């Protein structure tokens, strides 16, 4: 029995030893074949991975002129463990790179928290400063090449957008595409086309010696990857036209949008006030950003797609078209105007003109009373059970013109605007209202809210006799056969093409027949300009000035909307700006320099809340 017990104990001991060896072997195999953490830690001691940032794609105008270019700059990096224990000449480093000593110390303290990891000290180091840095030895410090944006024409700040460092949320949403310290498009074209512009970063693997010093490229660059530059984007913008529009808007608040009706391509998108896009690049970006953020005029706010304005009398075109389609209006229908529309206690004023007028002359003269009758006849049509049903039917028509909804352009921050419905008025008036309660809608006032982009799109719709292409800012992307298919599809309104002719005739008369309308200052010999003025009432200051136009009447090449906040009558501020832009685009010259001077010297006074305090 004793021998058996000894044998049993020996057997058990052997199994225990074998089991321990098996566990150790499995564990070692797991570390070597599956778990790469220790391999990575070891590699981290001998290898250094340096990101090679991809140059961002450039942006040119429709004629190939540069709007956005990339310039060479550098980040100053440090690996804290590589800084000599004896220290370094901080004064010299700060002087070479124009860096504050306190700023340097603060960053070094942050870098010390993870001494093996590269840490960025400053960005936007110029090539000249980098060369000065290279002439000296600062162990642990090195530069990484990047590119920054530059704007040779200094136009289109709101249009082109800007870059900023990625946030934690953007890193998460990017699903591995972005790292801390990367830049991303924050607005405008930069944001909308980020995927095409950013490119793909590369990496250079460098080998360290046993003292931690960089020996050179690991395995002769076998594991290096080259950066892939971003794609060049050709925008639809005409740079000369854009620059001229911004020049004419200088000192004012408002927007200009011009569209090529046959394609939906945006020729001009100017917002005022604007800013020098170069101010959003470099180490002063943060200071400049805060300065503009606190500016009461909001220069970074793209009024062309984000501001909601009452369209004013330009909206009378839509009223006339709906009336014609519904059969409640005929081009020969005439309505009286005795200095306005009067019905009981309701009064809608109007300027002096002949009375009565038919539709064509009502458009040319911009008669308020005429379109009050038109609007009432639409929503009080006997085919509806009540005026609420009539208003909702009217609202469906209005939305088909692109109002009250996003146009689905390539501006991600485009606003929808507002087209009121019976539900809104039921809540406001507790269900008790009629056509006179909402009569201000007849002349583009009341609760209507439209962006300048939507108003320019209306000009394109009328020019095309009932359809439009979704407005867009990009014409072509390098290496891509076409854009998103939505930009090539016609979008039709609910109004038949035949009904547009009397409206267009009225717009033409308003410009081209002396004394026949309010738009005569927009006349261009030989170009059959069609236009419609608008003066939008403003309870918080002087009325807003707006003008909508296209030219020529047949085979139109440009459709434009101008909106000048607090600009007064439509013919005073908005019309001359639109007319000058049309002239430059159509004739390649300006023959009315006195009109340019008049626009620049226009008496213009903003309400106190917009004044910039010194």
Structure report:
The structure is a single chain. This protein has 614 residues and is an alpha+beta fold. The chain has two domains: 50-235, Penicillin-binding protein 2a (Domain 2) (Alpha-Beta Complex), CATH 3.90.1310.10; 239-288 and 300-610, DD-peptidase/beta-lactamase superfamily (Beta-lactamase). The chain contains 21 helices and 20 strands. Strands 2, 3, 4, 5, 10 and 16 form a six-stranded mixed sheet that branches. Strands 12-11-20-19-18 form a five-stranded antiparallel sheet, with helices on both faces. Strands 1-8-9 form a three-stranded antiparallel sheet. It is elongated. The termini are far apart. 40% of the residues are buried. Residues 37-44 have low confidence and may be disordered.
Secondary-structure blueprint:
Layout lengths: L1 H32 L3 H10 E6 L6 E2 L5 E14 L10 H8 L3 H12 L5 E8 L1 H8 L6 E10 L6 H4 L2 E3 L2 H6 L9 E3 L2 H5 L1 H4 L4 E7 L5 E4 L15 E3 L3 H11 L4 E7 L4 E8 L12 H9 L9 H4 L9 H11 L13 E4 L2 E4 L9 H7 L2 H12 L7 H14 L21 H8 L22 H12 L3 E3 L4 E4 L12 E3 L7 H13 L17 E7 L7 E8 L6 E7 L9 H14 L5 H8 L14
Parallel strand pairs: 2-10
Antiparallel strand pairs: 1-8, 2-3, 3-4, 3-5, 6-7, 8-9, 10-16, 11-12, 11-20, 13-14, 15-17, 18-19, 19-20
Helix pairs in contact: 10-20, 13-15, 14-19
Query: Which parts are unreliable, with pLDDT below 50 for 5 consecutive residues or more?
Result: 37-44
**How large is the radius of gyration?**
33 Å
Percentage of residues in DSSP E strands: 15-25%
Shape verdict: elongated
Number of strands: 20
CATH architecture of the largest domain: 3-Layer(aba) Sandwich
Largest sheet: 6 strands, mixed
* Total domain units: 2
Cα(first) to Cα(last) distance is 107 Å
CATH superfamily of the largest domain: DD-peptidase/beta-lactamase superfamily
Fraction in helix: 25-40%
According to CATH, the fold-level topology of the largest domain is Beta-lactamase
Going by helix content, strand content and strand pairing, the class is alpha+beta
Give the class-level CATH name of the largest domain.
Answer: Alpha Beta
Total helices: the number is: 21
Mean pLDDT: 90
């Amino acid at each position: 029995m004793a021998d058996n017990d000894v044998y049993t104990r020996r057997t058990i001991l052997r199994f225990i030893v074998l089991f321990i060896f098996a566990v150790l072997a499995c564990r070692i195999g797991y570390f070597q074949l599956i778990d790469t953490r220790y391999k990575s830690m070891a590699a981290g001691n001998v290898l250094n991975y340096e990101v090679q940032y991809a140059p961002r794609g450039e942006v040119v105008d429709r004629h190939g002129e540069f709007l956005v270019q990339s310039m060479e700059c550098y980040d100053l990096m440090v690996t804290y463990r590589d800084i000599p224990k004896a220290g370094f000449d901080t004064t010299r480093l700060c002087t070479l790179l124009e860096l504050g000593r306190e700023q340097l110390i603060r960053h070094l303290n942050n870098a010390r928290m993870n001494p093996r990891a590269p840490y960025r000290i400053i960005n936007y180091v110029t090539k000249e400063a980098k060369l000065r840095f290279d002439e000296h030895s600062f162990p642990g410090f090195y530069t990484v090449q990047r590119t920054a944006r530059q704007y040779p024409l200094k136009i289109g700040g709101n249009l082109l957008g800007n870059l900023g460092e990625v946030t934690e949320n953007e890193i998460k949403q990017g699903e591995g595409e972005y790292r801390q310290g990367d830049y991303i498009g924050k607005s405008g074209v930069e944001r909308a086309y980020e995927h095409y512009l950013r490119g793909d970063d590369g990496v250079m693997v460098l080998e360290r010696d046993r003292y931690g010093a960089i020996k050179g490229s690991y395995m002769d660059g076998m594991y290096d990857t080259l950066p892939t530059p971003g794609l060049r984007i050709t925008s639809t913008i005409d740079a000369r036209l854009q620059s001229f529009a911004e020049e004419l808007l200088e000192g004012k608040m408002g927007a200009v949008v011009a569209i090529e009706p046959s394609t939906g391509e945006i020729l001009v998108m100017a917002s005022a006030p604007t800013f020098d896009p170069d101010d959003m690049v470099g180490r002063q970006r943060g200071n400049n950003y805060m300065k503009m953020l606190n500016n009461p005029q909001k220069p970074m706010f793209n009024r062309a797609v984000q501001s909601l304005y009452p369209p004013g009398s330009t909206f009378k075109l839509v009223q006339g078209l709906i009336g014609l389609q519904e059969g409640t209006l005929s081009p020969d229908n005439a309505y009286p105007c005795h200095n306005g529309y009067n019905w009981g206690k309701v009064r809608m004023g109007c300027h002096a003109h002949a009375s009565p007028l038919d539709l064509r002359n009502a458009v040319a003269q911009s008669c308020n009373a005429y379109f009050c009758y038109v609007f009432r006849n639409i929503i009080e049509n006997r085919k509806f059970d009540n005026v609420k049903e009539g208003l909702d039917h009217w609202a469906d028509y209005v939305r088909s013109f692109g109002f009250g909804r996003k146009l689905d352009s390539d501006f991600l921050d485009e606003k929808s605007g507002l087209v009121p419905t019976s539900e809104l008025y039921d809540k406001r008036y507790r269900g008790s209202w009629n056509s006179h309660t909402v009569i201000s809608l007849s002349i583009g006032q009341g609760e209507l809210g439209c962006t300048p982009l939507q108003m320019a799109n209306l000009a394109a719709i009328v020019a095309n006799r009932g359809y439009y292409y979704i407005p867009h800012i990009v014409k072509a992307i390098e290496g891509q056969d076409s854009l998103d298919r939505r930009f090539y599809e016609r979008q039709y309104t609910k109004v038949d093409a035949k009904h547009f002719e009397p409206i267009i005739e009225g717009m033409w008369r308003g410009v081209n027949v002396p004394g026949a309308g309010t738009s005569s200052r927009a006349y261009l010999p030989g170009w059959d300009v069609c236009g419609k003025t608008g003066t939008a009432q403003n309870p918080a200051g002087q009325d807003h000035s707006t003008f909508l136009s296209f030219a020529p009447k047949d085979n139109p090449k440009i459709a434009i909307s101008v909106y000048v906040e607090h600009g007064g009558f439509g013919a005073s501020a908005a019309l001359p700006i639109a007319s000058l832009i049309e002239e430059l685009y159509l004739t390649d010259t300006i023959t009315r320099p006195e009109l340019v001077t008049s626009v620049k010297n226009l008496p213009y006074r903003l309400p106190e809340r917009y004044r910039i305090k010194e």
